[in-house]
Specification:
Layout: E1 8-12, E2 16-17, E3 36-40, E4 43-48, H1 50-56, E5 62-66, E6 72-75, E7 77-79, H2 93-98, H3 103-108, H4 113-122, H5 125-141, E8 144-150, H6 157-173, E9 177-185, H7 196-204, H8 207-212, E10 218-223, H9 230-242, E11 246-251, H10 259-265, E12 270-273, H11 279-288, E13 291-294, H12 297-301, H13 310-316, E14 320-322, H14 335-346, H15 350-363, E15 382-385, H16 392-395, E16 402-407, E17 410-414, E18 417-418
Parallel strand pairs: 1-5, 2-6, 7-8, 8-9, 9-10, 10-11, 11-12, 12-13, 13-14
Antiparallel strand pairs: 1-3, 3-4, 6-15, 15-16, 16-17, 17-18
Length: about 425
Protein backbone atom coordinates (compact mmCIF):
# COMPACT_ATOMS: atom_id res chain seq x y z
CA UNK A 1 0.00 0.00 0.00
CA UNK A 2 1.25 3.46 -0.83
CA UNK A 3 2.51 5.66 2.00
CA UNK A 4 -0.20 8.24 2.76
CA UNK A 5 2.48 10.70 3.94
CA UNK A 6 4.04 10.88 0.48
CA UNK A 7 2.97 13.42 -2.12
CA UNK A 8 2.61 10.80 -4.82
CA UNK A 9 4.16 7.82 -6.57
CA UNK A 10 6.92 7.45 -9.13
CA UNK A 11 6.96 4.32 -11.29
CA UNK A 12 10.52 4.10 -12.61
CA UNK A 13 12.74 1.96 -14.82
CA UNK A 14 9.99 0.27 -16.81
CA UNK A 15 11.37 -2.23 -19.32
CA UNK A 16 8.72 -0.83 -21.67
CA UNK A 17 6.38 2.09 -21.04
CA UNK A 18 3.37 2.03 -23.36
CA UNK A 19 1.58 5.38 -23.26
CA UNK A 20 -0.99 5.03 -26.02
CA UNK A 21 -2.27 8.16 -27.82
CA UNK A 22 -1.15 11.31 -25.99
CA UNK A 23 -1.60 15.04 -26.53
CA UNK A 24 -0.14 16.64 -23.39
CA UNK A 25 3.12 14.73 -22.92
CA UNK A 26 6.01 16.24 -24.86
CA UNK A 27 9.48 14.64 -24.86
CA UNK A 28 12.27 16.85 -23.57
CA UNK A 29 14.35 15.89 -26.60
CA UNK A 30 13.54 14.11 -29.84
CA UNK A 31 14.94 10.67 -29.03
CA UNK A 32 13.73 10.51 -25.42
CA UNK A 33 12.53 7.05 -24.45
CA UNK A 34 10.30 7.51 -21.41
CA UNK A 35 10.37 4.78 -18.79
CA UNK A 36 8.91 6.57 -15.75
CA UNK A 37 5.53 7.96 -14.71
CA UNK A 38 4.64 10.26 -11.82
CA UNK A 39 1.24 9.94 -10.12
CA UNK A 40 -0.12 12.72 -7.93
CA UNK A 41 -3.64 13.46 -6.68
CA UNK A 42 -5.04 10.59 -8.73
CA UNK A 43 -3.69 11.91 -12.02
CA UNK A 44 -0.64 11.48 -14.25
CA UNK A 45 1.66 14.31 -13.17
CA UNK A 46 4.71 13.71 -15.37
CA UNK A 47 6.25 11.29 -17.87
CA UNK A 48 9.90 10.96 -18.83
CA UNK A 49 13.16 9.11 -18.46
CA UNK A 50 13.89 7.79 -15.00
CA UNK A 51 17.03 9.89 -14.50
CA UNK A 52 15.17 13.11 -15.26
CA UNK A 53 12.09 12.18 -13.26
CA UNK A 54 14.06 11.19 -10.15
CA UNK A 55 16.01 14.44 -10.27
CA UNK A 56 12.71 16.32 -10.00
CA UNK A 57 10.70 14.01 -7.74
CA UNK A 58 12.57 13.05 -4.58
CA UNK A 59 12.25 9.70 -2.84
CA UNK A 60 11.68 11.67 0.35
CA UNK A 61 8.48 13.11 -1.08
CA UNK A 62 7.39 10.34 -3.45
CA UNK A 63 7.06 6.59 -3.10
CA UNK A 64 9.32 4.99 -5.71
CA UNK A 65 8.23 1.79 -7.42
CA UNK A 66 11.29 0.51 -9.27
CA UNK A 67 10.48 -1.87 -12.13
CA UNK A 68 14.20 -2.64 -12.50
CA UNK A 69 13.87 -2.89 -16.29
CA UNK A 70 11.91 -6.11 -15.86
CA UNK A 71 8.28 -4.94 -15.94
CA UNK A 72 6.03 -3.29 -18.50
CA UNK A 73 3.86 -0.29 -17.61
CA UNK A 74 0.71 0.60 -19.58
CA UNK A 75 -2.83 1.92 -19.12
CA UNK A 76 -5.15 -0.47 -17.32
CA UNK A 77 -7.67 -2.27 -19.50
CA UNK A 78 -11.07 -0.91 -20.53
CA UNK A 79 -13.49 -3.74 -21.33
CA UNK A 80 -16.24 -1.99 -23.27
CA UNK A 81 -18.58 -4.92 -23.96
CA UNK A 82 -19.65 -7.26 -21.14
CA UNK A 83 -22.78 -9.00 -19.93
CA UNK A 84 -21.75 -8.88 -16.29
CA UNK A 85 -25.01 -9.82 -14.54
CA UNK A 86 -26.62 -13.21 -15.07
CA UNK A 87 -27.21 -16.43 -13.16
CA UNK A 88 -26.77 -20.04 -14.18
CA UNK A 89 -23.82 -22.07 -15.43
CA UNK A 90 -23.83 -23.33 -19.01
CA UNK A 91 -20.67 -25.42 -18.97
CA UNK A 92 -22.79 -28.47 -19.79
CA UNK A 93 -23.35 -27.03 -23.27
CA UNK A 94 -19.68 -27.38 -24.18
CA UNK A 95 -20.06 -31.12 -24.69
CA UNK A 96 -22.96 -30.49 -27.09
CA UNK A 97 -20.94 -27.90 -29.03
CA UNK A 98 -18.01 -30.30 -29.38
CA UNK A 99 -20.42 -32.98 -30.61
CA UNK A 100 -21.56 -30.61 -33.34
CA UNK A 101 -24.94 -29.57 -31.96
CA UNK A 102 -26.21 -26.31 -33.45
CA UNK A 103 -27.25 -23.28 -31.40
CA UNK A 104 -30.90 -24.09 -32.22
CA UNK A 105 -30.50 -27.72 -31.14
CA UNK A 106 -28.92 -26.62 -27.84
CA UNK A 107 -31.77 -24.15 -27.28
CA UNK A 108 -34.39 -26.81 -28.07
CA UNK A 109 -32.81 -29.07 -25.46
CA UNK A 110 -33.34 -26.42 -22.78
CA UNK A 111 -30.02 -24.58 -23.10
CA UNK A 112 -28.98 -21.37 -24.77
CA UNK A 113 -29.97 -17.86 -23.88
CA UNK A 114 -33.35 -18.81 -22.37
CA UNK A 115 -31.59 -21.07 -19.87
CA UNK A 116 -29.67 -18.01 -18.65
CA UNK A 117 -32.78 -15.83 -18.77
CA UNK A 118 -34.79 -18.24 -16.62
CA UNK A 119 -31.98 -18.61 -14.07
CA UNK A 120 -31.51 -14.84 -13.93
CA UNK A 121 -35.22 -14.21 -13.45
CA UNK A 122 -35.26 -16.69 -10.57
CA UNK A 123 -32.22 -15.18 -8.83
CA UNK A 124 -32.53 -12.51 -6.16
CA UNK A 125 -30.73 -9.18 -6.34
CA UNK A 126 -28.39 -10.32 -3.57
CA UNK A 127 -27.51 -13.50 -5.45
CA UNK A 128 -26.84 -11.56 -8.65
CA UNK A 129 -24.75 -8.99 -6.77
CA UNK A 130 -22.59 -11.70 -5.22
CA UNK A 131 -21.96 -13.26 -8.63
CA UNK A 132 -21.17 -9.89 -10.20
CA UNK A 133 -18.78 -8.83 -7.44
CA UNK A 134 -16.84 -12.09 -7.74
CA UNK A 135 -16.53 -11.59 -11.50
CA UNK A 136 -15.42 -7.99 -11.03
CA UNK A 137 -12.67 -9.16 -8.69
CA UNK A 138 -11.37 -11.52 -11.38
CA UNK A 139 -11.43 -8.73 -13.95
CA UNK A 140 -9.54 -6.44 -11.59
CA UNK A 141 -6.90 -9.05 -10.81
CA UNK A 142 -6.28 -9.32 -14.56
CA UNK A 143 -5.80 -5.57 -14.94
CA UNK A 144 -9.22 -4.20 -15.93
CA UNK A 145 -10.39 -1.03 -14.15
CA UNK A 146 -13.32 0.14 -16.31
CA UNK A 147 -16.04 -1.93 -17.95
CA UNK A 148 -19.32 -1.55 -19.74
CA UNK A 149 -22.07 -3.83 -18.38
CA UNK A 150 -25.30 -4.67 -20.17
CA UNK A 151 -28.63 -5.99 -19.02
CA UNK A 152 -30.24 -8.45 -21.43
CA UNK A 153 -30.74 -11.67 -19.49
CA UNK A 154 -34.06 -10.64 -17.99
CA UNK A 155 -36.08 -9.87 -21.12
CA UNK A 156 -39.13 -8.71 -19.19
CA UNK A 157 -39.74 -5.41 -17.47
CA UNK A 158 -39.21 -6.57 -13.89
CA UNK A 159 -36.07 -8.60 -14.57
CA UNK A 160 -34.40 -6.02 -16.82
CA UNK A 161 -34.85 -3.34 -14.17
CA UNK A 162 -33.55 -5.78 -11.56
CA UNK A 163 -30.35 -6.37 -13.55
CA UNK A 164 -29.77 -2.64 -14.07
CA UNK A 165 -30.29 -2.03 -10.35
CA UNK A 166 -27.72 -4.73 -9.57
CA UNK A 167 -25.25 -3.06 -11.95
CA UNK A 168 -25.85 0.26 -10.21
CA UNK A 169 -25.36 -1.32 -6.78
CA UNK A 170 -22.11 -3.16 -7.56
CA UNK A 171 -20.73 -0.03 -9.24
CA UNK A 172 -21.01 1.69 -5.87
CA UNK A 173 -19.33 -1.20 -4.05
CA UNK A 174 -16.44 -2.14 -6.33
CA UNK A 175 -13.36 -0.15 -7.44
CA UNK A 176 -13.94 -0.98 -11.10
CA UNK A 177 -15.91 1.77 -12.84
CA UNK A 178 -18.99 0.37 -14.57
CA UNK A 179 -20.77 2.06 -17.48
CA UNK A 180 -24.35 0.68 -17.66
CA UNK A 181 -26.21 -0.26 -20.85
CA UNK A 182 -29.85 -1.31 -21.29
CA UNK A 183 -30.05 -4.33 -23.61
CA UNK A 184 -33.71 -5.25 -23.21
CA UNK A 185 -33.76 -5.87 -26.96
CA UNK A 186 -31.23 -8.71 -26.82
CA UNK A 187 -33.68 -11.12 -28.44
CA UNK A 188 -37.44 -11.56 -28.17
CA UNK A 189 -37.77 -14.17 -25.41
CA UNK A 190 -39.35 -17.49 -26.27
CA UNK A 191 -42.06 -17.00 -23.67
CA UNK A 192 -43.24 -13.61 -24.96
CA UNK A 193 -46.65 -14.06 -26.58
CA UNK A 194 -46.66 -10.96 -28.77
CA UNK A 195 -44.74 -10.23 -31.95
CA UNK A 196 -41.37 -8.51 -32.35
CA UNK A 197 -42.86 -5.02 -32.60
CA UNK A 198 -44.95 -5.51 -29.47
CA UNK A 199 -41.89 -6.69 -27.55
CA UNK A 200 -39.88 -3.68 -28.69
CA UNK A 201 -42.69 -1.38 -27.54
CA UNK A 202 -42.65 -3.07 -24.12
CA UNK A 203 -38.94 -2.25 -23.84
CA UNK A 204 -39.46 1.34 -25.04
CA UNK A 205 -41.99 1.76 -22.24
CA UNK A 206 -39.19 1.05 -19.74
CA UNK A 207 -37.01 3.92 -20.97
CA UNK A 208 -38.59 6.69 -18.83
CA UNK A 209 -38.08 4.68 -15.64
CA UNK A 210 -34.51 3.79 -16.61
CA UNK A 211 -33.77 7.45 -17.33
CA UNK A 212 -35.45 8.65 -14.13
CA UNK A 213 -33.49 6.19 -11.96
CA UNK A 214 -30.27 6.86 -13.91
CA UNK A 215 -29.92 3.12 -14.51
CA UNK A 216 -28.28 3.28 -17.94
CA UNK A 217 -26.14 5.65 -19.99
CA UNK A 218 -26.49 3.61 -23.19
CA UNK A 219 -29.00 1.42 -24.95
CA UNK A 220 -28.07 -1.53 -27.15
CA UNK A 221 -29.95 -3.84 -29.51
CA UNK A 222 -28.92 -6.96 -31.39
CA UNK A 223 -29.46 -6.27 -35.09
CA UNK A 224 -28.82 -9.48 -36.94
CA UNK A 225 -30.23 -12.60 -38.52
CA UNK A 226 -32.56 -14.23 -36.00
CA UNK A 227 -32.54 -11.18 -33.71
CA UNK A 228 -34.01 -7.76 -34.66
CA UNK A 229 -34.24 -6.29 -38.15
CA UNK A 230 -32.74 -2.97 -39.16
CA UNK A 231 -36.24 -1.45 -39.34
CA UNK A 232 -37.13 -2.69 -35.86
CA UNK A 233 -33.79 -1.56 -34.49
CA UNK A 234 -34.05 1.91 -35.99
CA UNK A 235 -37.39 2.42 -34.27
CA UNK A 236 -36.05 1.39 -30.86
CA UNK A 237 -32.82 3.35 -31.21
CA UNK A 238 -34.52 6.53 -32.43
CA UNK A 239 -36.96 6.44 -29.52
CA UNK A 240 -34.04 5.89 -27.13
CA UNK A 241 -32.06 8.73 -28.70
CA UNK A 242 -34.98 11.11 -28.19
CA UNK A 243 -34.78 10.36 -24.48
CA UNK A 244 -31.08 11.19 -24.29
CA UNK A 245 -29.56 7.70 -24.33
CA UNK A 246 -26.34 7.06 -26.24
CA UNK A 247 -26.35 4.18 -28.69
CA UNK A 248 -24.34 1.00 -29.17
CA UNK A 249 -25.31 -1.91 -31.40
CA UNK A 250 -24.67 -5.65 -31.64
CA UNK A 251 -24.09 -5.56 -35.40
CA UNK A 252 -23.64 -8.03 -38.26
CA UNK A 253 -22.32 -10.88 -36.13
CA UNK A 254 -24.11 -13.73 -37.91
CA UNK A 255 -24.83 -12.13 -41.27
CA UNK A 256 -24.40 -8.77 -42.98
CA UNK A 257 -27.87 -7.27 -42.49
CA UNK A 258 -26.74 -3.64 -42.74
CA UNK A 259 -26.45 -3.10 -38.99
CA UNK A 260 -23.04 -1.40 -39.21
CA UNK A 261 -24.37 1.00 -41.84
CA UNK A 262 -27.30 1.76 -39.53
CA UNK A 263 -24.87 2.39 -36.66
CA UNK A 264 -23.06 4.94 -38.81
CA UNK A 265 -26.30 6.58 -39.91
CA UNK A 266 -27.51 6.93 -36.31
CA UNK A 267 -24.06 8.00 -35.08
CA UNK A 268 -23.86 5.26 -32.49
CA UNK A 269 -20.83 5.33 -30.22
CA UNK A 270 -19.89 1.77 -31.12
CA UNK A 271 -20.85 -1.09 -33.41
CA UNK A 272 -19.90 -4.44 -31.89
CA UNK A 273 -18.99 -7.92 -33.22
CA UNK A 274 -18.96 -7.06 -36.98
CA UNK A 275 -17.83 -10.46 -38.20
CA UNK A 276 -19.73 -10.02 -41.49
CA UNK A 277 -19.26 -6.28 -41.97
CA UNK A 278 -17.81 -5.30 -45.34
CA UNK A 279 -15.56 -2.51 -46.61
CA UNK A 280 -18.48 -0.15 -47.26
CA UNK A 281 -19.48 -0.58 -43.62
CA UNK A 282 -15.97 0.20 -42.42
CA UNK A 283 -15.91 3.35 -44.54
CA UNK A 284 -19.25 4.48 -43.12
CA UNK A 285 -18.13 3.83 -39.53
CA UNK A 286 -14.98 5.87 -40.13
CA UNK A 287 -16.92 8.77 -41.58
CA UNK A 288 -19.31 8.84 -38.59
CA UNK A 289 -16.50 8.18 -36.08
CA UNK A 290 -18.17 5.04 -34.75
CA UNK A 291 -15.85 2.70 -32.87
CA UNK A 292 -15.60 -0.87 -34.21
CA UNK A 293 -15.71 -3.00 -31.06
CA UNK A 294 -14.26 -6.40 -31.93
CA UNK A 295 -14.81 -9.43 -29.71
CA UNK A 296 -12.53 -12.31 -30.75
CA UNK A 297 -13.34 -14.44 -27.71
CA UNK A 298 -16.87 -15.01 -29.05
CA UNK A 299 -16.01 -16.80 -32.30
CA UNK A 300 -13.24 -18.55 -30.38
CA UNK A 301 -15.62 -20.17 -27.89
CA UNK A 302 -18.14 -20.84 -30.66
CA UNK A 303 -15.38 -22.68 -32.54
CA UNK A 304 -15.87 -20.57 -35.65
CA UNK A 305 -13.30 -20.03 -38.35
CA UNK A 306 -14.44 -16.50 -39.13
CA UNK A 307 -13.28 -13.45 -37.16
CA UNK A 308 -13.83 -9.74 -37.66
CA UNK A 309 -11.53 -8.18 -40.25
CA UNK A 310 -9.37 -5.91 -38.08
CA UNK A 311 -7.12 -4.74 -40.92
CA UNK A 312 -10.12 -3.63 -42.98
CA UNK A 313 -11.31 -1.36 -40.18
CA UNK A 314 -7.84 -0.01 -39.44
CA UNK A 315 -7.14 0.74 -43.10
CA UNK A 316 -10.48 2.58 -43.32
CA UNK A 317 -9.48 4.82 -40.40
CA UNK A 318 -11.86 3.34 -37.82
CA UNK A 319 -10.87 3.38 -34.16
CA UNK A 320 -10.97 -0.24 -32.99
CA UNK A 321 -11.74 -1.52 -29.51
CA UNK A 322 -11.13 -5.03 -28.17
CA UNK A 323 -13.52 -6.38 -25.55
CA UNK A 324 -14.22 -9.66 -23.82
CA UNK A 325 -17.96 -10.10 -24.52
CA UNK A 326 -18.08 -11.84 -21.13
CA UNK A 327 -21.42 -13.69 -21.00
CA UNK A 328 -22.80 -17.15 -20.12
CA UNK A 329 -21.66 -18.51 -23.49
CA UNK A 330 -18.25 -16.75 -23.45
CA UNK A 331 -16.91 -16.99 -19.91
CA UNK A 332 -13.75 -14.96 -20.41
CA UNK A 333 -12.96 -12.23 -17.87
CA UNK A 334 -9.33 -11.72 -18.83
CA UNK A 335 -8.43 -8.93 -21.24
CA UNK A 336 -4.86 -10.22 -21.53
CA UNK A 337 -6.24 -13.34 -23.21
CA UNK A 338 -8.45 -11.17 -25.43
CA UNK A 339 -5.33 -9.30 -26.56
CA UNK A 340 -3.76 -12.67 -27.34
CA UNK A 341 -6.79 -13.70 -29.40
CA UNK A 342 -6.67 -10.37 -31.20
CA UNK A 343 -3.08 -11.06 -32.20
CA UNK A 344 -3.38 -14.75 -33.05
CA UNK A 345 -6.85 -14.80 -34.63
CA UNK A 346 -7.16 -11.30 -36.13
CA UNK A 347 -3.49 -10.63 -36.95
CA UNK A 348 -3.26 -7.55 -34.72
CA UNK A 349 0.25 -6.46 -33.77
CA UNK A 350 0.71 -6.56 -29.97
CA UNK A 351 0.73 -2.76 -29.68
CA UNK A 352 -2.38 -2.54 -31.89
CA UNK A 353 -4.20 -5.02 -29.68
CA UNK A 354 -3.11 -3.20 -26.51
CA UNK A 355 -4.28 0.14 -27.91
CA UNK A 356 -7.66 -1.43 -28.74
CA UNK A 357 -7.96 -2.90 -25.22
CA UNK A 358 -7.20 0.45 -23.57
CA UNK A 359 -7.70 3.61 -25.64
CA UNK A 360 -10.13 1.96 -28.06
CA UNK A 361 -12.25 0.71 -25.18
CA UNK A 362 -12.22 4.14 -23.58
CA UNK A 363 -13.33 5.76 -26.85
CA UNK A 364 -16.10 3.16 -27.15
CA UNK A 365 -17.40 4.52 -23.83
CA UNK A 366 -16.84 8.22 -24.59
CA UNK A 367 -14.15 8.36 -21.93
CA UNK A 368 -10.98 8.67 -24.00
CA UNK A 369 -10.27 12.12 -22.54
CA UNK A 370 -10.10 10.65 -19.03
CA UNK A 371 -8.71 7.12 -19.35
CA UNK A 372 -7.30 4.68 -21.91
CA UNK A 373 -3.83 6.16 -22.29
CA UNK A 374 -1.08 7.49 -20.02
CA UNK A 375 -1.00 11.22 -20.61
CA UNK A 376 -0.35 14.17 -18.35
CA UNK A 377 -3.58 15.24 -16.66
CA UNK A 378 -5.41 11.97 -17.28
CA UNK A 379 -6.63 9.68 -14.53
CA UNK A 380 -3.90 7.45 -13.19
CA UNK A 381 -5.46 4.13 -14.16
CA UNK A 382 -2.16 2.31 -14.57
CA UNK A 383 -1.07 -1.29 -14.90
CA UNK A 384 2.32 -2.83 -14.12
CA UNK A 385 2.78 -6.19 -15.82
CA UNK A 386 5.46 -8.68 -14.80
CA UNK A 387 6.73 -9.09 -18.35
CA UNK A 388 9.53 -7.36 -20.29
CA UNK A 389 7.48 -6.02 -23.21
CA UNK A 390 4.05 -5.41 -24.71
CA UNK A 391 4.72 -8.26 -27.14
CA UNK A 392 4.93 -10.60 -24.16
CA UNK A 393 1.18 -10.20 -23.49
CA UNK A 394 0.10 -12.33 -26.47
CA UNK A 395 3.39 -14.26 -26.63
CA UNK A 396 2.98 -15.59 -23.09
CA UNK A 397 -0.65 -16.48 -23.74
CA UNK A 398 -3.02 -17.64 -21.02
CA UNK A 399 -0.99 -16.29 -18.08
CA UNK A 400 -2.05 -13.48 -15.77
CA UNK A 401 0.90 -11.06 -15.84
CA UNK A 402 -0.65 -8.48 -13.49
CA UNK A 403 1.70 -7.21 -10.81
CA UNK A 404 0.18 -3.87 -9.72
CA UNK A 405 -3.05 -2.07 -10.60
CA UNK A 406 -3.71 1.60 -9.94
CA UNK A 407 -7.21 3.08 -10.02
CA UNK A 408 -7.42 6.87 -9.80
CA UNK A 409 -3.83 6.82 -8.55
CA UNK A 410 -4.46 4.35 -5.73
CA UNK A 411 -2.90 0.91 -5.61
CA UNK A 412 -5.74 -1.61 -5.53
CA UNK A 413 -3.82 -4.71 -6.63
CA UNK A 414 -0.26 -5.36 -5.42
CA UNK A 415 1.88 -8.38 -6.30
CA UNK A 416 -1.15 -9.86 -8.04
CA UNK A 417 -3.42 -9.65 -4.99
CA UNK A 418 -6.34 -7.34 -4.32
CA UNK A 419 -5.74 -4.89 -1.48
CA UNK A 420 -8.58 -4.70 1.02
CA UNK A 421 -8.85 -1.59 3.15
Amino acid sequence: MQNSQKEGIVISNASELYLGPVSNYEPIYSNEIPDAVVIKNGLIEAIGETSTILSNYSKFDYEIIDCKKKKTVCPSFVDSHTHLVFAGDRSHELRMKIQGKSYLEIAQSGGGIMFSVNKTREASKLELEALALKRLDEMLLHGTTTIEAKSGYGLDAKSEIKILEVIQSVNEKHPIDIVPTFLGCHIKPADYLGNQWEYIESMIQLLPQIKHQNLAEYVDIWTDKGAFSVEESQHFLNESKKMGFKLRIHADELENVGAALMAAELEAVSADHLLFAEAVSASALAQSQVVANLLPATPFVLMLKKYANYRMFKDAGVEVALSSDFNPNCYILDMQSVIGLGSFMMKMLPEEALRAATYGGAKALNRENEIGSLDIGKKADVLILDIPSVASIPYRFGINHTDTVFKDGKIIVKEGKKITN
